[in-house]
Amino acid sequence: MTQQNWFAEKSEQIVPATVKAFGISCFSRYSQCDEMIRLLAFAEASAKAGVNGYVTEAFFDSKACIINVVLNSTVVKDDAAHQKVVEVGKNTLGHFMIDGGENYYSDDWDGPDEECQQQGQMNRCRFIHHPATDNLADRLSIATGHAIGILMLLENFQRTYAPDGRIGKWTDKDIARACDLRDMGCPGEAIEPPSPAEFVDMLVECGWLTRHPEHRLVYEGFAHPPFSGQDASGEIGEST
Known about the structure:
Blueprint: E1 18-21, E2 24-28, H1 33-48, E3 55-61, E4 66-71, H2 80-92, E5 95-98, E6 103-105, H3 114-129, H4 131-140, H5 144-161, H6 172-178, H7 196-206, E7 209-212, E8 216-219
Parallel strand pairs: 2-3, 4-5
Antiparallel strand pairs: 1-2, 3-4, 5-6, 7-8
Helix pairs in contact: 1-2, 4-5, 6-7
């Protein structure tokens, strides 16, 4: 009997990947048990502190090795509820973001674990020379350097407006506009850009985006810009 490798990156150790605990939707992108344990600890601690009603979601991005906590619209940054949620997060999560913005760290947090650091070092190099980049360049009939620029714009859009990776809440037109497909080709050689739907199809076919039954599209790129000097994580080309 062949034993399933439960500790592969996307092994789906827990199903479903989303659990509602104390009114908070806890979601592990790759359905990892240790990640869900941390999210549930945060939800329980939030309830004990009386602030779980201010938290709508805690999302563990397995690819980026970071947690994003989403607060409801009644919370104002640095008000009492916000400060209490930050305190609870520091005690249970380690490194996390609130509403995709400011990063927070527990007092004893000493950086990403070794596995995340190694993934990041590899991916910063692979971003430039990865076949998925060349594949996109071929489909758009542009130079690889131009494709890298487009992908950097895509990633900047995702980090700013879809930090949890669920970029499908934006329309194809929004995504295409963010990638600035104007002035394609060399000077004097105009290339008609694809339609937004065609462009998104290309991103999916090349592995930069993944179709998702609930969130429409999920970003499959790196967690951080490859030229920023920050660590990143993730692998392109394999669907979630």
